[in-house]
Amino acid sequence: MSVKAFKLVPVVDREMLMGDKARINIECIECCGRNLYIGTNDGSIWHFLLEEKNSPAEIATFSVTKQLYKNLGFRKAVVELKAASALNRLLVLCDNTITLMNMMNLEPIPTGARIKGAVTFTLNENPVSGDPFCVEVCILSVKRRTIQLFLVYEDRVQIVKEVSTQEQPYAVAVDGHYLCLALTTQYIILNYSTGVSQDLFPYSVEERRPIVKRIGRQEFLLAGPGGLGMFATVDGISQRAPVHWSENVIGASLCFPYVVALDEEFITVHSMLDQQQKQTLPFKDGHILQDFEGKVIVATTKGVFILVPLPLEKQIQDLLASQRVEEALVLAKGARRNIPKEKFQAMYKRILQQAGFIQFAQLQFLEAKELFRSGQLDVRELISLYPFLLPTSSSFMRSHPPLHEYADLNQLTQGDQEKMVKCKQFLMSYLSEVRSTEVANGYKEDVDTALLKLYAESNHESLLDLLVSENSCLLTDSAAWLEKHKKFFALGLLYHSNSQDAAALQLWVKIVNGDIQDSTRTDLYDYIVDFLTSCSDHELVWKYAEWVLQRSEEVGVYIFTKRPLEEEPNNSFNPDDVISCLNKYPISLVKYLEFLVLERRIKKEKFHTHLAVLYLDEVLHLKSLGAERYEELTKTQAKLRNLLRKSDLYRVHFILDKISGTDLHMECAILYGKLEEHDKALHILVHELKDFATAEEYCAWNSESKDLPYRRKLFHMLLSAHLNSSTLDHELVMAAVDLLNNHAAEFDAVCVLQLIPDSWSVQLLSSFLTGAMRESIHAQRMAQIAVGLAKAENLAYKHEKVKLKESPTVLSDKKLCQVCQSPFGEPAFVRYPNGGMAHTHCAASRLVNSNTNHHLSSPNKRT
Length: 863
Fold this sequence. Notes:
Among the domains are: 305 residues, 7 Propeller (Methylamine Dehydrogenase, Chain H), CATH 2.130.10; 106 residues, no CATH class; 64 residues, Herpes Virus-1 (2-Layer Sandwich). Helices cover 41% and strands 20% of the residues. The protein is built from 30 helices and 30 strands. Helix 11 runs antiparallel to helix 12, helix 20 packs antiparallel against helix 21 and helix 24 packs across helix 26. The two termini are 110 Å apart. This is Transforming growth factor beta receptor associated protein 1. Keywords: Cytoplasm, Protein transport, Transport. It holds the Pfam family zf-Vps39_C.
C-alpha cells in the first residue's frame, strides 16, 4: 500500500554547522519564512537562509547560506526556539530562561525583558488578546504543577494568568483559551479562562514520551496508548479515526492529508483519509520532527533535513498507474482543501475518468459507469476504443495526455472474444442510458450512430426501437453498416427517419417479393399497408396502391379507408379517383364504398346507388350457387336490406327494376316503402312472404320520424291487409288479432271496430279493448290537466293586469318614448309593466319585430 508522498532532502549537514567539533549536537530548530534557526547543546544559535529551487524532476531542492552565529555565553543547551515575525523577535529558551532576541542580528533586546523559570514553552497560534503587536506565550513552569501565560511585546513581557494542575504537566499545546496538556498519567483539555477541564484518555509519561501537537483550529494530535496517534478537539471528542504508528514515536506533525511520525529508525507517513500507512523512510538517530508553515523538518543531532512532499497530482497518478483506484480517489477528494476550486474540479474530473477506464479494463462495469458519469466523460473517449464505431466524419481527438494506455478494444481484451462481447454489451447499455442526457450534448450523432452499429452487429432487439424513435444516426455510415449486416428492414426505418420514404418502401417491397432476405418482420406486408395508410405523400401511395391491392384486396384497401382522422379533407384522396383505381378489385371496391357511405356518411347518390347495385349483384350471384355459400349470402343480404332501409339517397326505381323478376321479396317491399307505396309493400309481406313480424317491424321503422297520424295510417293499412283477403283464412285472422292486441296504442279504436268482422267476440279483442280504453282515459285526463294549467296562467295574467291599473300613469311633455327617445305629441301612448311609455306606432313596430321570438321571456316585457 506504499505511496511515494515525500522525499527527504538534506539542508544543513555536519560540516556547515560544526566542522570538526564532534561534541556539538543540534537540540532544536525554528523556521520562519526563509529563515532557519538552529539551537545547539553548547548554548549557540545558528541562522541560515533557505532558498528553494525547483528541479526538472519537480522535486524541490534547497540552497542554504549561513547568515549569523551567536553564542549565548551559557554552557547549557538551547532547548527551544520560537520566532515572532510580527515583532521581529526570536524567543530563545536556555537555562530555564526565555530571552527575546532580534531575529536579524541575534542580539538581545536592549530592555533585557525575559521570562524566567520555564521548562518548555509554546505560542498560541489562535490568540485571544486581539492585540497584533504581541504574542501569547504559554510556559510549563519550574514550579510544580504550574502553567503560566504571558503576553510578549517587542520590548517587554507581561504575565496574564497562572494555572495550577492536578498533576505535573510535561507537554502543552494552546488554542485560544484551551490548553491540551500531557500530565503524568493522562491527557486533558483545560479551559484556562473558566477553569473547566475535560479528561481525554490515560497515558503514562514514565513509559513513553508524550506528544501534544496543535494541528488545526481547536484540534490536537496526541500520542495515545498502544501506538495510536489520536485526534482530539477542545470538546474532548475525536472526529477522525486514529492512525496506528510506532510504539516509540519521538515526534509527529501534520502535512495534509498525511500524518508524519518519527521514531528511532524510521519516518512513517499515514493518511488521515483512510488511516493506512503510505510510506516509510529510513532515518536513524532522528530526534526532532516539526512542521513550519507547510515545511516538515526533521533533524538528527548532526544534520537538518526537509521532507519535501511530492505534488498530490503525481501521487494520484502513481496510484492510478498501480491500479489502486480507491486509494487514488480518496487522496484526490482529500486534496480539495489544498487546491484552488477550479483547478481541483478539472483535476478531479480527469482522475475520475482515468479511474473509470481502469475499472473498465478490469471488467468492473458498474464501477466504471459511475466513475464515467461522475467525471463527465466525453463518451466519445469510450466509443473510440471500439474500432469503426465512430462515424468517419467525426472530428473527435482523444484527450492529451491520454486517459488510458489502450489503443483499442483488441489490445485491452488481448483478443479474448468473451471479454470483447461483455465490453460491447456494456457500451450498448451505457450509450442507451446517456443518449438522452446532457452527457451526449453536442455529439449526439456520434452516440446514436455508434449505438446503431452495436445493435446491428449483435442483432439486438433495441435496434428497431432506436430507429422508430427520434434519433441522430448519420445516414451514410449507418446505411452501409446495416447493409453489411443484412438489416434491410432496419435500413428502411433509417431511410424513413431521414425523410426518404420512397427508398424505404422500395427496400421493404423487395423483402416481401423475396428479392432480398430479411426475417425481421413476418408481417412486413401489413406493416407496409399501415405505413402507406399514414403516409402524407399521396404520389407514393398511388405508386404502391396496385402492388398492395394485388397481394390482398381486403387488406390493401386500408390505404384508402384507414387514413388518419387529422388528415385535412382537402388533402384526402378524391373518391372518384379511388373508385376508378378499385374497379379491377371488386372486394376492395365494396369495402371502399362501405367506408364512404357507412363511415364517412357522404351524401352522394352515385355512391349509395353503386354500393346497393354491388350488394344486389353479389346476392344474386350467391343465390345462383345454391346452398354451398349460404352463410355468406345471409351476411350480404343483411347488408343490402340495411342499406335499402336506412339510405334515402340511392335511385329507388333503378334498383327496383333490377330486382323485379327475382325472388327478393323483402327487398322489394323495402323499395315500395321508400316510394310510399306501402300497400304494395305490406301485401308482399303479408300475403307472399307471410312474415307478419317483419310486417309489423316495417310499419315501425317506416314511421320512426313521422307523426302519430302517419304511424296510425301504416298500422291501419297493415290491419286492412290482414282482413281484406278474398279468402279469410285462420292464419291471417290470428295475425290480425295479435297485431291489435300487441299494438293497441297504434290504432284508432273507432276505426278498428268498423273494420273487424261482426263475428269476432269481445273476449278475442279483450287485450286490445282494454289498452284502447286505457289510452282514451289517459288522453282525456291529460287534456283536462292542460286546460287547468291554461286557466291558472290566464288567472295570473288577469291578476297582474289588475295590479297595473291601481297606480296612475302621468304623461307630460318631459316624458320620452322608450323606443325612439322622442317626446309625445298626442295623448295616445302605450305603457309597459316596468313603467316605461312608448308611442303607439313605436310599440306596434317593436311588437312586429319581436314576433320572431316565441314570446317574451318574462311578464315585465308584455304590455
